[in-house]
Specification:
With 225 residues, the protein is an alpha/beta fold. The protein contains 8 helices and 11 strands. The chain has 2 domains: 124 residues, Rossmann fold (3-Layer(aba) Sandwich), CATH 3.40.50.2300; 95 residues, Arc Repressor Mutant, subunit A (Orthogonal Bundle), CATH 1.10.10.10. The termini are far apart. The structure holds calcium ion (CA).
Length: 225
């Protein structure tokens, strides 16, 4: 069971990664909101564990943004703020369950399994292949196909195409693309994404799909009708 864990406190994060890993989960741990959103957009998870108080973008903002972007994985909010108000705000923002710290690991595990079970049909119903014209993205392994053949691209161009193919015809912000194409590379110039987009645009010539720049919004993948 794939799990996205968002927790800023290192000791708590490590404990949860180890404990949940021992209980058969495959945790992907993130320490802040930006990292969490990038990982959430880039992968498929069965369930998300989200700490509410995070540095910078807090848990509720992450949740709000994820839901607005159409990410539907079930979310369990984990927080030290155990007040009724936080619980209601969290559930209204799109969380599916709530657990206050300190909590029992057995209870966390039981709730995560229940959440994943409840959401399993919708999850399985999501098509594995995302088609856009003659291009197709295999959501399971990230491979991109053109007319049935694997499209061989350098890693950065592939990452950009994967991100655009995941929501064809919709603008994807430059900021989000940057975190997906250049993960953990703070020293890279922001404009580098334009170079990757330029190269990808040339490689897509003749596929019927093109990378369109939307000033101030980002990029989108346009597919010939
Ligand atoms: Ca925290």
């Amino acid at each position: 069971m794939k799990l996205l864990l968002v927790e800023d406190e290192p000791a708590m994060r490590q404990t949860l990664v180890r404990a949940l890993g021992n209980r058969g989960f495959q945790p992907r741990a993130c320490a802040n909101g930006d990292e969490a959103l990038a990982a959430w957009h880039a992968g498929l998870y069965d369930v998300v564990v989200l700490d509410l108080s995070l540095p910078g973008r807090d848990g509720l903002e992450v949740l709000r943004e994820a839901r607005a972007a159409g990410l539907r994985e079930p979310v369990l909010i984990l927080t030290a703020r155990g007040t009724v108000g936080d619980r209601v705000i969290g559930l209204n923002t799109g969380a599916d369950d709530y657990l206050a710290k300190p909590f029992d690991l057995d209870e966390l595990e039981a709730r995560l399994r229940a959440l994943a079970r409840r959401h399993a049909p919708a999850h399985e119903a999501a098509p594995r292949m995302q088609h856009a014209g003659t291009l197709a993205l295999d959501r399971d392994n990230g491979a991109v196909y053109h007319g049935g053949e694997v499209l061989e691209l350098p890693p950065r161009e592939l990452a950009l195409l994967q991100a655009l193919l995941a929501s064809p015809g919709k603008a994807v912000s430059k900021e989000r693309l940057f975190t997906l194409v250049f993960p953990h590379q703070a020293e890279v110039q922001y404009e580098a994404i334009e170079v990757v987009a330029y190269r990808l645009r040339k490689k897509l010539a003749g596929t019927g799909a093109s990378v369109v720049t939307l000033r101030g919004l980002g990029y989108l993948l346009k597919v010939d009708a």
